[in-house]
């Protein structure tokens, strides 16, 4: 049975704005701009007849799709959709040392060393393993036609690799901003991206000068 997935990243938080490392262990709220992004997405897609909403367990995803949830669409939280855990670097202000550590580990992942992770963090392979639970729900035979999924930046990249059968080493081929939309169709066998990194709904927001 054909299904359409509307997969978005959560709206902006103050830690996003400040460039602070924000992973699975940081349960932060949307800021004013993030709430405006969520509202803009809602206005653009409120007429889509969503059958289900899937989010991570973190409140920034709940807040992003709150208006859809409040319209009584069935909603499930999945730990599999949580952000990758960045371990000891979560909550830290970015500096040259941290930037170098991230460049180093992202380089390892691109080279296929997907088991690497920061101390107390997660590897891409571990995130993929917990995302498989969500994939199993998506391919179930049921009456769901339109599913709204709200998750996180790095996890989103890994999830799109999983859905489209791309190697995880190509995760960075999926760019994103806050509330970026990837629209993905499932034909009963395979997933196909039909709308790539769509941010058209954000054009309604005023330009910020910071």
From TrEMBL:
Keyword Metal-binding: no
Keyword annotations from UniProtKB, A to Z: Hydrolase
Highest taxon above the source species: Bacteria
Binding positions for substrate per the UniProt entry: 9-16, 60
GO biological process, one term: regulation of pentose-phosphate shunt
A GO cellular component annotation in the UniProt record: cytosol
Active site, UniProt feature: 10 (tele-phosphohistidine intermediate), 83 (proton donor/acceptor)
Annotated InterPro entries: His_Pase_superF_clade-1, His_PPase_superfam, PG/BPGM_mutase_AS, Phosphoglycerate_Mutase
Position of the signal peptide: none
One GO MF term attached to the UniProt entry: fructose-2,6-bisphosphate 2-phosphatase activity
Protein name, entry field: Probable phosphoglycerate mutase
Phylogenetic placement of the source organism: Bacteria, Pseudomonadati, Bacteroidota, Sphingobacteriia, Sphingobacteriales
